[in-house]
Amino acid sequence: MTFITMFMFLQQHSSLLTVLFVILFFYPLAALFVQHRKPSKLPPGTLGWLPYLGHTLSFLAPHLSTSRGHFLEHNIQRYGKIFRCHVFGHPTIVSCDADFNSFILQNDDRLLESSYPANIPGILGDLTLLVATGDLHKRLRGAMLNFFTTNTQSINFLRHIEDNVLRVMAPWANKKTLIFCQETRKFTFGVIAKQVLSLGPEDVEFIEILHNFETFMKGLVSLPINLPGTAYARAIHAQYRIKAITKSLLQQRKGRGEAKEDEGKMDFLDVLLAHNHLSEEEILSLVMDLLLGGYETTSVFIATVVRFLSDHPRALDELRREHERVRRAKGGDGDGRLEWDDYKKMNFTQDVIKEALRCGNVVKFVHRKAIKPIHFKGFEIPVGWKVLPIFSGVHLDPSQFSNPQEFNPWRWKEDVKMGEFGSGCKGFTPFAGGRRLCPGSEVAKLETAVFLHHLVLNFSWAPLIDTDRPMCFPFLDFKHGFPISIQPICPSSH
Ligand code: HEM
Predict the structure, then answer these.
(1) Is the pLDDT at 484 greater than 60, yes or no?
(2) Which atom of ligand 1 is nearest to the CA of 362?
(3) pLDDT classification of 3: cutoffs 50, 70, 90
(4) Is 439 a pocket residue for ligand 1 (Cβ < 6 Å)?
(5) Whose CA is nearest to atom 3 of ligand 1?
(6) Between the CA of residue 298 and those of 360, 419, 442, what are the distances in Å?
(7) CA nearest 56: which of 92, 31, 108?
(8) Is residue 490 part of an annotated ligand binding site?
(9) How, if at all, do strands 386-389 and 90-95 pair?
């Protein structure tokens, strides 16, 4: 570039350059100024030097789910379990403190409210439970909870879960390898699509929704840039298509005007239709929430449990023995299907699930914002600051759980819990808490237990990539989808 073209460039772009200069030169000065002017009782920490980004990249750097990651470890060591930083474009308080996390969850809609980054409302809309606040959240959540009380406690629901496990596992007998995450996705989507919309793998709508969901999930964790071809724009379209399919199912049912008499046979759409105070948009949004909640989290969680078991043969042996006992106790009576009483006998399975939730950290943190000044343990947090309770920060805290990085299901045994790990359960919040406690927590545990029952009784497996372990991206996932080799085991061998 000659001197003249450079001069012309500078002249034409003078306003752009001024903005750049202001950002690069004045932002650090402004940040320094703000840091020195801060109310003295803010938690310790810094707001970083990078405009807008602050510490976002280090905060989001992927790490094993069984570790807190470099960013948290470094800041906890330097400032303690509650510190300030700058992430997602906002001054933020990060908490890895069990008491403060519980305080945050219990004060939802009083001192704090949900505050997810722009791509969540951008894709899911303002009616999603994740971003709805106050009375709107209460009303929509009420309608959803109805589904859990009417539908998920019946024997039909247990049968339906077991049918889906058997359907997914049937072809495994003829396979040598599997991408395990794909299999668990087929399973959880099969369960939720039937419960929500009465759709099965034989229905075209089932396949279309599943296909769109994969695109949709990628956008939820992308930058909110709505330009053709971006993951975000594709996710918005996928969301429209899923809602359009749901809308046509909704209209068919309204057209038929049929009302199911047996509550146990109503799907979620029927339950919502019976609520005549919900608008069509609200119904579509609730359906999306339930499909989303029921699909991704539980499928990656089941894969995580199976990965932990692969690495801990002693835990796998004890689990297998428990399920053999359950099967033996049923004897030759009946059709051999699982009953609720069988589920209640799976105590070690429940400990395995709890331990995998603690080490797996499916949801590493949730997003909140202070709507009133917060006073806690001598700190003051001003209105408008983001507050992130980090669940993994507590689940992997050595002062809460001894050897926290070790997968040890026995730590949950009642007698041990009362002693050494007495205080260990306080900050155990894999499903969050308070007014937003995950309504699907029991369903997720049930699906996992039934899946494990048939897996450990019928198959042996081994990971094909040793390093493919559950990672926090910060959403939980496997880089390679957890490929495994698999073999049926004949009943006589155990
Ligand atoms: C291992 C599996 C699961 C984990 C770890 C998990 C975790 C969570 C967490 C931490 C939240 C709170 C979000 C917040 O406070 O901002 C949540 C909310 C939610 N979950 Fe789950 N979840 C799981 C499975 C499920 C299942 C199976 C369903 C549905 C069948 C479900 C449906 C929902 C819904 C609808 C919400 C929003 C609740 C509200 O805002 O009132 N989840 N989940």
Answers:
(1) yes
(2) 5
(3) very low
(4) yes
(5) 297
(6) 12, 31, 11
(7) 92
(8) no
(9) parallel
Which token pair is 278?
Answer: 């919900």
Site to probe by mutation for ligand 1, drawn from 301, 302, 438 as the one with most ligand atoms within 8 Å of Cβ, is 438
Instruction: Tell me which fold the domain 38-493 belongs to.
Output: Cytochrome p450 (1.10.630)
Ligand 1 contact, 365 CB (< 6 A): no
Distance, CA of 265 to CA of 199 (rounded, Å): 13
Confidence of residue 332 (pLDDT cuts 50, 70, 90): low
Domain layout of the chain by residue ranges: 1-37, 38-493
Q: Which of 297, 391, 437 to mutate to test the pocket of ligand 1 (most atoms within 8 A of CB)?
A: 297
Q: How far is the CA of 358 from the centre of ligand 1 (A)?
A: 15
Sorted by sequence, the CB contacts under 8 Å of residue 381 that are 6+ apart come out as 42, 43, 93, 370, 373, 374, 387
Nearest to 352, CA basis, from 319, 325, 321: 319
- Residue 193 and residue 421: Cα distance in Å, rounded? 39
Judge if the beta carbon of residue 438 lies within 6 A of ligand 1: yes
Residue 347: pLDDT over 70: yes
- Residue 39: its pLDDT value, please? 55
| 142-151 confidence digits (pLDDT tens) | 999 988 887 7
Q: How far apart are CA 272 and CA 260, in angstroms?
A: 12
Quote the tokens at residue 155: 């024997």
Is pLDDT at 208 greater than 90 in this prediction? Answer: yes
Q: From ligand 1's centre to the CA of 436, what distance in Å?
A: 8
Nearest CA to ligand 1 atom 21: 438
Who has greater pLDDT, 456 or 24?
456
- The answer to whether 316 and 275 are in contact (CB under 8 A) is no
Q: What is the pLDDT of residues 351-368, one digit of tens each?
A: 999 999 999 999 999 999
114 lines ligand 1 (CB under 6 A): yes
Distance CA 92, CA 4 (A): 46
Whole-number average pLDDT of the chain: 87
Q: Whose CA is nearest to atom 25 of ligand 1?
A: 440
For the Cβ of 289 lying below 6 angstroms from any atom of ligand 1, the answer is yes
Specify the pLDDT at position 264. Answer: 58
Peptide bond into 44 cis (omega under 30): no
